[in-house]
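ok so heres the complex, two chains, lmk if somethin looks off
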Amino acid sequence: MLVARRNLSRDRLRLALSVAGVALSVALILLLAGYREGVYAQAAAYLDHAPGSIVVAERGVANFLGASSTVPASLDARVRAIDGVRSVAPVITQFVVFEEHDRKDGFFLVGYEPTTGGGPWSLVGGREPAADDELVMDATSARQHGLAVGDSVRVLDRPLRLVGLSRDTTFWAGSLAFARIGALESLLRAADLRSFLLVEPAPGRAEDVTRAIGQLGVAATPVDTVIANDQRLLARVYDAPVGLMVVIAFVVGVLVVGLVVYTATVERRREYGVLKAIGARNRTFAGVVAAQALIATSLGTGAGVALAWFGSAALMVWRPQFVVRLELEAAVIVGAASIVMALLAALAPARSLGRLDPASVLRG
Amino acid sequence: MTPLLLARRNLLRARGAAVASIAGVALALTLTLALDAIYAGVANGLTAYIDRAGADVWVSQAGVRNLHMVASWLPASTTQQVQAVDGVGEAVPILYATDTVAAGSDRSVAYVIGLPPHARAGGAWSVTEGDPGPLPGSVLVDAGVARRGGVGIGDTVTVLGRDMRIGGLTEGTASLVNSVAFVSFGDFNAARGRGLVSFVLVRAEPGRDAAALAAEIERRVPGVSAQTTAAFAEQERRLVMDMSADVITIMDGIGFLVALAVLSLTVYVATLSRRRELGILKAIGARNATLVRSVSLQTALTVAIALGLATLLTAAVAFVVPRIGVPLAPAVTAASLAKAAVSALLAGLAAGLLPIWQVVRVDPASAFKHGGSAR
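and the predicted structre for the whole thing:
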């Protein structure tokens, strides 16, 4: 270990560059994993804050995002009449594309009744919509488009007046926006239709209520299951590209450490040859090389975790719509990957020392 | 000895380091190229239905200029109004919703299209098995989606809240984000019956200019937006690119930093190991300018080879990905290559500064000291 440390610390700039290379790779892997977790958290944000623990949708629909569902408005009264139902919040949802300043953005537009809930859970400005031509949008999206309370926003074929700004309502593909249910009925030409009913059962009555709602010919699914289903849908979109990026970052890390340890080893060939001539075994050299790789990788991993932490904080300040959730589990996996990275990186220099002929260095 | 020869020799002498350097930079550039290719592939995948639906002009609810996940609802009478516009050969109404196709426990997002019988636009363009169009009670789904859900012709899937029999399998109808499923107009109406239509697909009379026809439809039919297929597809690509612009910028930044670190490290290490030789060259009269040019060329050679490799690697990814069952065809674009080249050039210029500083500081006397190779 001492030899390994000395070899590495002999050129500190080289060590610093290698640590930087590994740190960037590790930070990239952590940021990608954190971004993916953030996407999932954002996907759950609305249902986490909305009233109700059972999502009632059209038969066969067990998703909230990515699925369209229509149920008759009259279903509301029928569900309320079920014994054990404490509250029902009807909502209409629709993704709409919003265009300002030549840039397209997505709104996941939610129509709700202020009396039953399902609207914005945290307003940072203005108020909730009181009329069908009023809109609440995410404060970050509003700021990025230069919009303020009182401005007019064109949604589909009509203008709505911005009356409130919400927070924590961005998501991976845009942001949440809220209007009264009547506004959605009119925009979507969907009078007497609802997308979902968010139902809260009385304590201990969830199973009875779910069963009773199911008998009405619609789907009743626990909120947690719906959130898990939505996250599975997202995983199909995100996992392949994120996985590819993680593999590339991992290979870059291996190459950087491998290069540093290799050059540090080649530079000391003469000394290693002398050690070999006086009886040192290949196993000893392999240990020295592996220790160098482990030191460089450990330093890089530590710096990478710190970089990811600061990077994610800076990213969320620069672009608040991005939520990056650094998870302990991801850090542990990256730590384990770093050890693999170090061992792979040590392979080439260890082989080079294994083939070293002691006589050749003594001759030199 | 010319700077180019010196640079080439430096690279060739430490082949392991040179290979690692080129590979590291190539991979860093691949980060940005692959991400661009993935998004371009997603954008192309999303426009597949628009491109292949067989329409010259798309008519939608006013203000609706995209297809992805949006809602567009028009009165049924719009079809007749559009048909009456001079230059319209055929107006085909379709119904559209973004929904999930559920096969057992497997769910995937799909554009569900409701098609009138014998529609000459809006239908599947490649049916590999089964009925060519959706019959009442049946649905055409993408073959990849069916395979993933473990279902086939005659099996039941849930679409629009109804159980439907798979009547046909299509290909080329799935992207990373969603697939396209086709049901009959009647079934769609029964599930979401509102007496409305989503889009009217227009086939122009032969020789009619689609852009002029779209403008004429917007002028003559109230409450609609009309776009040519090319314009509609362009709007869809913009949606993907606008919504992913920040992610791409961040990844580009990280890719640039990784390339910079790898390049700095490798050129620095290579120069360091040649310190003794550089000292000898200086002692026999070589100028700093010659040595600086040699180091710069070494950096430039590394970057150029790495950029070529990164392009090949990304092209290989683009070739392999769709062949391993991922519904995505990454597309390498000229704009993306130009961006990677600029990024590589900047990284190369920045990375070259450190070894140049080393070269300038080399003391010719060091060449004659015993073992003066390291520091």
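quick notes: Residues 49 and 140 of chain B are 14 Å apart (CA to CA). thats all i got rn
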